Amino acid sequence: RLSCIRNNIWLASCGVLSSGLAVLSSFGLMLFCGVPFVVTVANAPFLILGVGVDDMFIMIASWEQSSRKNEKSSVKSLLAETYAEAALSVTITTLTDVLAFFIGTWTAFPSVRSFCLYTGTAFVFCYVYTMTFFGAVLVLNHKREQGNRHWLTCMRVDVGKDQAENSCLYNACCIGSCSGQPSQPEGEHPMSLFFKKYYGPFVTNKWIKVLMVLLYGAYLGGSIYGCTQVREGIDLRNLANDASYVIPYYDDDDKYFSTYGPRVMVVITESVDYWNESVRLGIESCAQNLE
After folding, report:
1. Dihedral, CA atoms, 147, 150, 152, 154, nearest 10 degrees?
2. Range of 207's domain?
């Protein structure tokens, strides 16, 4: 926002900080418990950041709606109503993510198991920090706005003075308006007004509804066809960097050795006396028969 009082840069920064704290807490706990750290775990912070920022937006939107409906309510009432509106959504999204990743720990691949443990635990910490740390930040930011304090310096803004003699830059940075008039509390966010006044009536038109159904039918048919074309397996080239020496190796392997089929190995599961010549001859004979 352009208002120096209503600007929520620090609030958004604390939302990102909350996700960072969740990553640090989960990584610290897993390393303390002896869970091996693999390279794929380095991708976890980006997943946590996406979910954490989404939860932050839900909390801020619920807080602003509660403040708009009950401008004279106490901070305690506003926070209670915010949690009543937002906590259910945040809880459900976190629960589904945590279940998905903890189910992934049943895999036989140790690297995937470690990744799922780190990420699932990070989601739990992200939920805890959103419900505690970020809620406290919401209250502090609300008190700052109520006290007409600047978003950057937290100094009180003198909105009652006549600032005509000051420069436009000073008024814009310190008052929130180039004209020198104090910035007024804002109403609904422009995006909310757009969806309410334009997008909502547009999608509820009967012809648009028919078009939406047809588009969804085409999408569903394409999805079903795509599922029938999916092949099981993994191309090891996709796991390497584009400049890696591994890619030419697999290209040459497919070009020159793919006609021979897969490698066949024979494993002897019992103790063998390799010093015995007759045993060695028997192993050689077995290998020749298999060839």
Report:
1. -40
2. 192-228
